[in-house]
Amino acid sequence: MSASDDKVEEMPVLYSYWRSSCSWRVRIALNLKEIPYDIKAVSLIKGGGEQHCNEYREVNPMEQVPSLCIDGHTLVESLSIMHYLEETRPQRPLMPQDCMKRAKVREICEVISSGIQPLQNLIVLIYVGEEKKKEWAQHWITRGFRAVEKLLSASAGKYCVGDEITLADCCLVPQVFNARRFHVDLRPFPIILRIDRELENHPAFRAAHPSAQPDCPPEVAK
Amino acid sequence: MSASDDKVEEMPVLYSYWRSSCSWRVRIALNLKEIPYDIKAVSLIKGGGEQHCNEYREVNPMEQVPSLCIDGHTLVESLSIMHYLEETRPQRPLMPQDCMKRAKVREICEVISSGIQPLQNLIVLIYVGEEKKKEWAQHWITRGFRAVEKLLSASAGKYCVGDEITLADCCLVPQVFNARRFHVDLRPFPIILRIDRELENHPAFRAAHPSAQPDCPPEVAK
Lengths: 222, 222
Known about the structure:
2 copies of one chain form a homodimer.
Chain A: H1 3-6, E1 13-16, H2 21-32, E2 38-41, H3 54-59, E3 67-70, E4 73-76, H4 78-88, H5 99-116, H6 122-128, H7 133-155, H8 167-181, H9 190-199, H10 203-208
Parallel strand pairs in A: 1-2
Antiparallel strand pairs in A: 1-3, 3-4
Keywords (chains A, B): Cytoplasm, Isomerase, Phenylalanine catabolism, Transferase, Tyrosine catabolism
Domain GST C-terminal (chains A, B): 98-218
Domain GST N-terminal (chains A, B): 10-93
């Protein structure tokens, strides 16, 4: 048996929290590409947040989920992870071939990942304070969704960009869930709502849903 | 003369504000790739911000700079723009060939573009309020730079990832400038400081600097 035969392809490990929208994005991408993976749950709540413990800080210096151990390396930042999967696992492409369409996918991903999510994530809301956090989150989600809806009015087909599921859809669905958590009025965003409905029963999206996660509290799980 | 001869390749137009770190990222990338471009200045200050006027909202639904008109389309979101340039103008590559190194570049870009910049940009600071804004900005920049420094300790050569300039460097230098604006103590970040020093006299970075922009107020311009 040669040394190379010894090497067993290790299963990727996703550090994930059931309700984290950034973890959820990556779970959808892994599921769509049918990449088997193990989950290591990191509770963002327990004991002030397991993401801040020394052991996890070595995994992810931003002290956030997700992180993905894959191909002998640890990757952080959900969009970076998804693009790595796209480049190394080309099955079931999540990016269009056309450069301008690729740019349109990235625009929607970026508006959500830079323009909305960072302003309503847990650590920022803790800093904003209990009293103001709902109004704060609503403000930034509404502002961002106005832009997303406008971008979608030019790019959407059945999904965010054309008729194939892309990384933009992996970002959109978890952000809609967060919008509902913060009771954002979604009626001004008919295209967002239509795409969300289109995807809610897709098997890859269903399996990635917070309520289907091993660390989802039993009282919340469906 | 045929119809196609009539078509003149139009010069790209960058909607930019001299001090906007996201505009600056794109200016660096355009300069490194030696792509000539025109600047349309959008003042984020004048009259409550020209980015909020109806005309500009049609250009950029997030009401932010930069936007780039290129190849007959308008692109928004700095990282999306830079990746489009990289995919369509392969001269002077700003991404490594190796997929894992590409992921490392994207990680640094994302920590800055999602984890730092959105929390200290002008519109958020207005919302946070005059009294608290300095401490708020310092808090998030310091937190993000701790992560960037850790990532760089594994990835950096002469620049952020290895010895070639990448998109990560295009994001880092403007963020260091913002850190200084908010009087962040940068002494805990020796690798960030070294790379910033390495790049400050690079012609493409110098030409992209706020003080070299046509809309920089004369009292600030060098």
